[in-house]
């Protein structure tokens, strides 16, 4: 069983943008009783315990030892020198009323200078960047920042949730294949080592769990996974599963369950916030495209059902459209076929709010990653795949992208840790002699 949380938990976020300020504003609003933490499994979720006939259940936050919302404190980095209130006002996520209520608290959230590579994020004019030039110096500075945050915020525990901008796509360099090679790359100040990797390395060096909410390469790399295991630190990622991809991981399992064929899936979005501006660069979009297009492969399984899924077309596009702001709109056109090959279509128009969907994921990941640390778990936390577009799994193990399988994995993990029975949903024992369980 995990140790109980004690003291404050510092949620450290590289990237003070629409997602992080919406998350902070929502936590503060919930603490003051102004709103409910809608979308948060840790705050509003409940677990069935035992058999259906027992009528037992428990709130997740009561069943396992998680920090309360009152324990949370916040530290951030950013390459722009705006405080949290300025960012929230510019991001136009919150209503005038909610912004006014959150402004006094958000104005106290002031980012430390961020690590920046202008070749990887070209659409943001950076004016708040760390001055160190060598990778080792940057890591030392970030580690000191982490220690300073813990001291200044009075936090006994810390987690890092990466919420900065999407970096331009680069294939993994050879130096990320092992920790020994990565250490040499750091010594050589290798340009293939990105800012996201430096934040992750600094966090792991300080024993701080790291979850990557972006498609950037970091703890999905063998070198940093090796480091996480050696240092005994939990890691998770990558890319928050919030809007269109969440719907994809709901609909694709339905097609697979009913054995309906797929000819094509076309997805497009319009988005006007800073994330949309960054993704307007083709190389930055390429990073997002990799995580958004990969989810269908493991769900539909071309290899086992080639007649149904062996030759479908899958296209994804994101268009920067400033008037839309954070109110993203996603369209999906899904061409399917059924009995005797007859074609059908599914059309989805999801008018969502990007940061409103992502904020509760930040909260849950912060609490669950700290929970994993107190359990003594290390390395990949596959049980948290529920939260990611491109979930990680150990080498040689295909990742699971089906949202419902991911949910059951998460809930059964919590039951197991709490000393409760894992639920398998067969239900044969409810029917006595009518449905005799098979003799083994």
Give the ordered list of helices and strands.
Answer: EHHEEHEHHEHEHHEHEHEHHHHEEEHEH
Low-pLDDT segments, ≥5 res = none
CATH architectural group of the largest domain: 3-Layer(aba) Sandwich
Question: Radius of gyration in whole Å, from Cα?
Answer: 22 Å
- How much helical structure, as a percent, in the residues? 25-40%
What's the pLDDT, averaged over the residues? 94
**Computed structural class:** alpha/beta
CATH class descriptor of the largest domain: Alpha Beta
Task: Return the CATH topology of the largest domain.
Answer: Rossmann fold
Strands, total number: 13
Shape: globular
Can you describe this structure?
The chain has 440 residues and is of the alpha/beta class. It folds into two domains: 8-240 and 355-417, Rossmann fold; 244-351, Dihydrodipicolinate Reductase, domain 2 (2-Layer Sandwich). Helices cover 38% and strands 18% of the residues. It is built from 16 helices and 13 strands. The strands form three sheets. The chain has a seven-stranded parallel β-sheet with strand order 5-4-1-6-7-8-13, sandwiched between helices. The protein has a four-stranded mixed β-sheet with strand order 10-9-11-12. Helix 1 packs across helix 15 (354-375).
């Amino acid at each position: 069983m995990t140790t109980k949380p004690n003291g404050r938990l510092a949620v450290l976020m590289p990237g003070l943008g629409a997602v992080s300020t919406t998350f902070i504003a929502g936590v503060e609003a919930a603490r003051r009783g102004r709103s409910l933490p809608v979308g948060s499994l840790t705050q509003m979720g409940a677990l069935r315990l035992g058999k259906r006939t027992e009528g037992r259940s428990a709130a997740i936050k009561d069943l396992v030892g998680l920090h309360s919302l009152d324990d949370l404190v916040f530290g951030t980095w950013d390459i722009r020198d705006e405080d949290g209130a300025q960012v929230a006002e510019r991001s136009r996520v919150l209503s005038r009323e909610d912004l006014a209520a959150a402004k006094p608290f958000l104005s106290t959230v002031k980012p430390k200078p961020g690590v920046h590579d202008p070749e990887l994020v070209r659409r943001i004019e950076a004016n708040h960047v760390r001055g160190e030039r060598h990778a080792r110096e940057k890591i030392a500075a970030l580690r000191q920042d982490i220690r300073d945050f813990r001291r200044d915020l009075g936090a006994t525990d810390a987690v890092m949730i990466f919420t900065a901008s999407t970096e331009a796509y680069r294939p993994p360099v050879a130096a990320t294949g092992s920790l020994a090679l990565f250490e040499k790359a750091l010594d050589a100040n290798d340009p293939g080592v990105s800012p996201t990797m430096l934040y992750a390395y600094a966090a792991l060096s300080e024993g701080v769990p790291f979850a990557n909410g972006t498609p950037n390469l970091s703890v999905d790399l063998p070198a940093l996974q090796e480091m996480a295991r050696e240092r005994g630190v939990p890691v998770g990622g990558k890319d928050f599963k919030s809007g269109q991809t969440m719907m994809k991981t709901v609909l694709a399992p339905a097609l697979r369950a009913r054995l309906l064929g797929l000819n094509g899936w076309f997805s497009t979005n319009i988005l006007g916030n800073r994330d949309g501006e960054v993704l307007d660069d083709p190389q930055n979009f390429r990073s997002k495209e990799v995580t958004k297009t990969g989810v269908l492969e493991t769900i539909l399984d071309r290899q086992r059902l080639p007649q149904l899924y062996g030759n479908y077309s899958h296209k994804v596009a994101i268009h920067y459209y400033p008037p839309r702001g954070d109110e993203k709109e996603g369209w999906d056109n899904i061409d399917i076929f059924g009995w005797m090959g007859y074609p059908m279509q599914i059309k989805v128009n999801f008018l969502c709010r990007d940061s409103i969907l992502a904020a509760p994921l930040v909260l849950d990941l912060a609490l669950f990653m700290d929970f994993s640390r107190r359990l003594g778990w290390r390395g990949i936390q596959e049980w948290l795949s529920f939260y990611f577009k491109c979930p990680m799994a150990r080498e040689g193990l295909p990742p699971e992208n089906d949202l419902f399988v991911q949910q059951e994995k998460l809930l059964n993990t919590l039951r197991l840790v709490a000393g409760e029975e894992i639920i398998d949903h067969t239900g044969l024992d409810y029917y006595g002699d009518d449905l005799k369980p098979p003799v083994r």
